[in-house]
Design goal:
alpha/beta; single chain; 5 strands; 5-stranded mixed beta sheet; 46% helix
Length: 187
């Protein structure tokens, strides 16, 4: 055991890498207290559950992992709520769920997409701290980097679909490319 500890000593800096924690806090901020979130992705589901355990809220958010629930039934159950959001679902998955449509618009709001009309002042995702894990390209860091870049990319696609200005979509595309230049290439 002592030998294994000595061999792993250079890796003991993880307490300085709070990327997944920052991501979960940003997701929590994106959904108002008491709100509901349907989320895809292990990092989001796990981190939000961890926060609920170790930093409980007076009015908790209701988080449903997309792979653990019937997403269509979840959307039907939350159709009339103004505080229902989805996160991490790609265009094909959203289209399969009938989103966005005139009956159920979908508006980008930072890391999440609101089911319904966009409020007057949408909340952008916060600026991520770039810890050492970001540069090492560790798996959880990749998940978080992709989540932020994907949120920007999907915001651009939703803005285009809603007939928004090309400049707004281009800005979101640039943010996606700046967040994750390895996976997001601008044409």
């Amino acid at each position: 055991a002592a030998g294994a500890l000595l061999l792993r000593a250079p890796l003991a800096e993880h307490r300085d890498d709070f990327l997944a924690y920052d991501y979960a806090r940003d997701l929590r901020r994106a959904v108002p207290p008491g709100g509901a979130l349907l989320t895809a992705g292990d990092t989001a589901s796990y981190a939000l559950r961890w926060l609920a355990l170790f930093d409980p809220e007076t009015v908790p958010r209701r988080v449903a992992p997309a792979l653990a629930v019937d997403a269509g039934a979840w959307l039907d159950a939350h159709a009339d709520r103004r505080d229902a959001f989805v996160s991490g679902l790609g265009p094909a998955a959203l289209e399969g769920l009938g989103l966005p449509s005139r009956a159920r618009p979908l508006s980008p709001e930072g890391l999440v997409q609101r089911l319904g009309a966009l409020p007057p002042t949408p909340r952008p995702p916060s600026v991520l701290r770039r810890p050492r894990a970001w540069a090492r390209d560790e798996s959880y860091a990749r998940d978080v980097i992709l989540a932020y870049a994907f949120a920007h990319w999907l915001s651009a696609r939703l803005d285009e679909a809603e007939g928004g200005s090309p400049e707004t979509a281009q800005l979101e595309d640039l943010r996606a490319a700046a967040t994750d230049p390895r996976d997001y290439r601008l044409r």
